[in-house]
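Hey, I'm writing a tutorial for new members on how sequence and structure tokens pair up, and I'd like a real worked example in the thread rather than a made-up one. If someone can provide the structure for the chain below, I'll link this post from the tutorial.
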Amino acid sequence: MHISRVVTGSAALALGALALAVPSAAAEDSGITISPRSAAPGQTVTVSTTACGPDVDYGKAFSDLTSQINLLAGDQKGTLVGTFQVPEDAAPGSSGITVKCPPRIQMTDTLTITPRPSGAAAAGSGSAADAAPRPSGAIAAGSGGTAGVDGGQVALGGVLLAGAVAGGAVKIRRRLGAARV
């Protein structure tokens, strides 16, 4: 009876880990990389894709936050990249970004607009000479996101974990069976 509870609990744990891996894999299916995934008003956002193909050197992105975003060839062949700045008056919430490239490729993903932290200075471009001093206690932050996370590898890890748990349960069961004999 004890073994069946261990096996059931272990299987539930492994399935839970696998279920957490599936959204990561699904989130990467849009073909668009948005960095950062969450941005405050005034922040610069980069939109890129490799889904248009290796021979395509231009594309366009559209959002209700800004006019057309031109996507041009990036550092690597087949990568299109464009940037835009989140408007100062953007309301918190979600905003769809649609990428179109020839001949008829279209993808959509979502950017989350976060409220500007209270007391934060507006972000933007400029030189150090015209930059305002940072408020006391301000922290410079990176772009965040999940760059480099492969949902397929996370799912595989969940499957391997489930196999290890099942193997351990079988070994325990065999030991208990041998002890009874």
